[in-house]
Design a protein that fits this description.
heterodimer, A: 298 residues, mainly alpha, MetI-like fold, two-stranded antiparallel ribbon, 2 strands, B: 297 residues, 14 helices, 79% helix, 0% strand, globular
Amino acid sequence: MASPSARAQRRTAALLLAPFSVLFAAVTLAPLGYAGWMSLFTTRTSGLGFGGTRQVFTGLANYANALSDPAFRDGFVTIAVYAAVYVPVMIGGALALALLLDSALVKARSFFQLALFLPHAVPGLIAALIWVYLYTPGLSPVVDLLNSLDLHVSFLSADNAVFSAANIALWEWMGYNMVIFYAALQAVPGETLDAARIDGAGGLRTALSIKLPMIRPAVALAVLFTVIGSVQLFTEPKVIYSASSAIGSSWTPNLYVQTAAFTRNDFGLAAAASLLIALFAAVLSFLVTRISRSRSQS
Amino acid sequence: MTEPATLGRRPRSRQRASALLSRTGVTAMLGLAALYTLLPLLWLVLSATKSRQDLFATNGFAPGRHFALLDNLGHLFQVDDGIYLRWLLNTVLYAGLGALLATAFSVAAGYAFDKLAFPGKERVFGLVLLGVMVPGTALAIPLYLIAAQVGLVNTFWGVFLPGLVYPFGVYLARVFSASYVPDEVLEAARMDGAGEIRTFCRIAFPMLTPAFVTIFLFQFTQIWNSFFLPLVMLSDQRLFPVNLGLYEWYSSALSQGHPQDYLLAIVGSLVSVAPLVVLFLMLQRFWKSGLTAGAVK
């Protein structure tokens, strides 16, 4: 038997949750469900293409096709190489910058925080445009400078495109993660740091043995979002793809999905591949969470 | 020299020489990082002021021979019957209005999850967290498929409606509500006979203003950033957000050899980024607190 106030709370909760829930169901749950359904069908053209098309139930064939397609698997290889480069540099770089900022020596802290965060105010597509211009020979002062030093680097070649893409993402997100880490460092109690100092620990030692372990949860979360971000890689490759013939139309899994849907018109395959990417991201985030948790318990 | 001055946080005597050295070192390293983040923006600003000839002929980190910013701006707003202005307006609607509504819905939901009792609460919240985990780009094709079913492909709504849902905002709002809205205040309001809705609107909502601004900023950048979804959903240029329009100019500069579009994409980028940078400078307090609330708790 609910008291009047409990009933009122329930009614209000329903009212306050309604707009979000209805829209969440419409633009997240329903599309996922529909994509799951679509992924079980394939489009067959009957006759010579004059008879129109019909949907044929194919079970898990689209999933099997995607997984056995070397182009799709290569996309994941690209992601793996990208993440192997990007995640350590990003997390290490942002941590180093946050520790430097926190090292009590810095004047103009807020200047540096802003200067390093500023790229995050630039939309990803525009960041990619700026950098691809900076990678383009004949337009780029960076390439000119390297050439004058007799270093001939082709940023848009097949071998270097992964690093070029990682650099764009690094530019956008490093300051963002730095601000998070810096905020976490501010929460480290002063007494702990004083104790370390009295015990004779220097700045570097304090940073590595005291500060780092204490902000581990913030670092773990940043690793998680960085890994999920890597799986989603699309904007930077899409822009690089327009500028360079060196990378293919299925360079990353998301590019593969887009090509499957709009170049090959195979929506069943695109839906299956999308869901595989979502599943992959979910499994990865589960693993990352798991690993960081067991680490912090040990 | 040997006095134990407590000006700094460390004993001074031993540290003076090395502190000077490492102060320079630390500042130099941060300075290098700042160059890395600021130089590309400087390049954008300088390039937008150049004529097409100077863009290719002068150093990217130096001003051009002619100051062509005004000509470039004039061209930007005139080309294709002023389509750029239309893209800007679309973006304001998609990102501005969309984020405003998304934030209102998130704050209402987050407050309900934090302060109100209802059956199955944690299970429903788990579903919201699942929504946080599904990568946005993996949803683009599923969204396209369902939009195709209900006839929303290549319409304003196909891009606008997905922006109204922000599961991470609900999570943030719950965290904020727990720390900004004391239970005692709500109890007092209930004692005084205020209804639940009235309590939320008149008492809790004003206390959640910082949460509102923070979530708005996050979702605003998120929608402004989105590229895959509009790319898939829209084919009518007049519905494009700025991002997609700039991408069109950029790729036509490359694929169809329209070098004038190089400059258009650059000037257009600067014009759409500038207000965002100003917004971030003005609202520092909010995004910093938002980052902390989202990451540390």
